[in-house]
Design brief:
single chain; mainly beta; Porin; 14-stranded antiparallel barrel; 5 helices; about 10% helix; globular
């Protein structure tokens, strides 16, 4: 047993010497004022109905997130080529159904100054959205409206390439594909989402970092007209354009706070359904906007980050009940502590 342990230790030591690695532990505590993304009308309804939606202990929740990250450097000279492996677990105080794991892989290769080739993969085995009415069940049992848990799994694969365009400024092109597969009761929501994104990033002004990205996404509803009652006339596909500007400012090293930052995100989505029997989606658009601000501090080997997020979705539809049902607002607060163990 001791010989095996010594042999494994020597292999690990040789590997870590040839290919150095870093291990980082991150933990955060956050608060979400509307973790189920309920509309204002839904939030104003009796407690019993909110519980049917999935809000077992109210509409807000504390969230504890734990992340383990491992970075392998595949070169020993300038550490320009590395891979990241990470896992994250999120725990919700108000509803354990919301707890979920996610796993990710990323590689980054620096070709020359401001020129990178990157790619990655992210997998979330199961994520609970909230409780909805199972419409297929409703069609067969017209007087029964059962609320059932809506879950989905998600996979994302992406690749990007960046190149310098001028002094301390570079352009990045990113292509990704995301799949979302729902549990059997809600398979009508299954989607394949293709996204193309272009970003301009610059450090032209000393101590400032600016980024503006523009993306276009197309979501294909893979179960549309697959024989189910709820997919006969309802196409949940959509097209979406997103704009995301951000800025951060680096303070003096002697300052308690090292970095201040803020960002805006605007997602303009239009559903492609053209069936007049599909009142929920026809001619429906929404603008989902998010404002985020944060500060970061490095002290005694620890990295601290405090962030606030304000989010609002405004839906436009020919029907007021759709606008009311699919619009919501929320805010989040988060404190994060990260430490590189080695």
């Amino acid at each position: 047993m001791n010989k095996k342990f010594i042999a494994l230790f020597l292999v690990w030591f040789n590997f870590s010497t040839v290919y150095p690695f870093q291990f980082t532990f991150t933990n955060s505590l956050g608060f979400d004022s509307n973790y189920l993304r309920l509309s204002s009308n839904e939030m104003s309804r009796p407690v019993e109905l909110i519980q049917q939606y999935g809000g077992l202990n109210g509409v807000s929740s504390l969230i504890n997130r734990t992340k383990l990250g491992l970075r392998y450097f595949l070169d020993t000279k300038d550490k320009s080529f590395f891979i990241d492996l990470s896992s994250r677990y999120s725990l919700y105080s108000s509803n354990s159904d919301k707890n979920f794991f996610s796993y990710s892989f990323l590689f980054s290769k620096k070709i020359k100054s401001y020129t990178f080739l990157k790619g990655g993969y992210r997998y979330m085995p199961e994520y609970y959205l909230r409780n909805f009415i199972d419409r297929d069940f409703h069609y067969y049992y017209d007087n029964i409206y059962p609320y059932k848990g809506c879950y989905f799994s998600q996979e994302t694969i992406w690749i990007s390439y960046s190149l310098k365009v001028m002094k301390r400024t570079w352009f990045e092109l990113k292509v990704s594909q995301k799949s979302m597969f729902y549990n059997d009761r809600f398979h009508e929501y299954d989607l394949f989402i293709n996204t193309f994104q272009g970003s301009i990033k610059t450090k032209l002004i000393k101590k400032y970092f600016f980024e503006v990205s523009l993306s276009s996404s197309s979501a294909n509803n893979t179960t549309y007209q697959d024989g189910s009652m709820s997919t006969m006339f309802v196409d949940r596909g959509y097209n979406e354009i997103a704009l995301r500007p951000s800025v951060s400012y680096k303070l003096k090293k002697s300052s308690f706070i090292n970095v201040l930052g803020s960002s805006l995100s605007f997602y303009q989505r239009k559903y492609i359904s053209n069936s007049h029997l599909d009142l929920l989606h026809i001619d429906r658009t929404h603008l989902d906007s998010k404002f985020k601000m944060w500060l970061k501090s490095d002290l005694n080997g620890f990295t601290y980050k405090v962030s606030l997020i304000f989010r609002q979705r405004v839906t436009d539809s020919p029907f007021l009940w759709v606008e009311s049902l699919k619009s919501f607002s929320k805010y989040e607060a988060n404190i994060e502590v990260s430490y590189r163990l080695f």
